[in-house]
């Protein structure tokens, strides 16, 4: 039996459609245009390839400018879809070569303009200008552009010189000559040294030769700021200005509490916590770190204890003597985002006292249960007030119903047990603040 003719027709149509879609979507080159730099003693390489594999014949319009080296498939020796373009021209001016790839099957021709020019300016690609201690090293990457502001397609295989200059801290500046307390803020790391990175192919050869390329790894080793400079160490580029970046190394610090309401005359202690490899560690205030009050009309600071002076809001600032705060406040754009932690401190009058029976916020309970009577003070706008050493909340309740086992020094928590059945009121009182009422039903 013959297959129906519509089947043959449909098949033919499908084949035709597939063929047209294929050529319409277009085989193309990975780059239609590349800009490569000219050096006296370096021949920059760039790999051009056809996005969809196939068999191509490669030609260049200017054999005096670039050399093209097609690479062939292992399977099919005549098939090449990839070519290495090597700059051989040494003349320091803009020149263009056209590379063509002809599809040996369809005859289609693909084109790439290879523009050669000299580097006019360097810049840093990386946007991070702050590093944290104890964190994975950060990659810093350069870009280069020609006089018209076009970025070079590759800086692969080009040696760069990088330098770090740490800014001296205020302390050590007074320390006199040969002061060894001056510490290095940053260090370079090779990609092979880093357990967080693999060596990028583009700088493999340079790293193996022990020199630096357009990408480096930087690691913060002490808090402070440093200037990183990169330059082209090639005679023909001595006129290109080096590029430099200011980098701030910060410790990953947290102030606790971060937002607190206290009463005038009361004192509250702040803790400084450091995040190290995902864990918080409390660090002591020392010769490096200290706390400061932003506006001393509202509060004063002594060590890590802040005292409320007058109703109002201010901030507790953590300072690092290695990081000058004018650098942080920043006229320099690089530093403007860098911040050490600050905590908000609001000095308030109490407005409201609440009493609750935890854990269920319900006064109906049974005999022999453990509970906490929680008393809390609030501001007029419902922010909870933290009590320090100076104040205490008073409370009264029937101890023959609820037996107190432990009471916090500020009186805000009474841990105990219900020991008899009955009903009895619970009252809390804080200075002039009207008290709220609870009522045990056991
Ligand atoms: C380009 O490739 C050639 C041949 O492999 C090599 O000798 C040369 O060092 C390469 N250039 C760069 C800048 O890596
Ligand atoms: C009272 O002190 C305890 C610890 O002693 C604290 O957890 C609690 O937050 C304090 N209560 C108030 C209202 O400040």
From TrEMBL:
Keywords: Signal. The keyword Signal applies. Residues 27-117, 126-242, 251-349 form the NUP210 Ig-like domain. Pfam families: Ig_NUP210_1st, Ig_NUP210_2nd, Ig_NUP210_3rd. GO terms for cellular component: nuclear pore. Residues 1-26 form the signal peptide. It comes from the Eukaryota. This is Alpha-2-macroglobulin bait region domain-containing protein. It comes from Anopheles melas. The lineage of its organism: Eukaryota, Metazoa, Ecdysozoa, Arthropoda, Hexapoda.
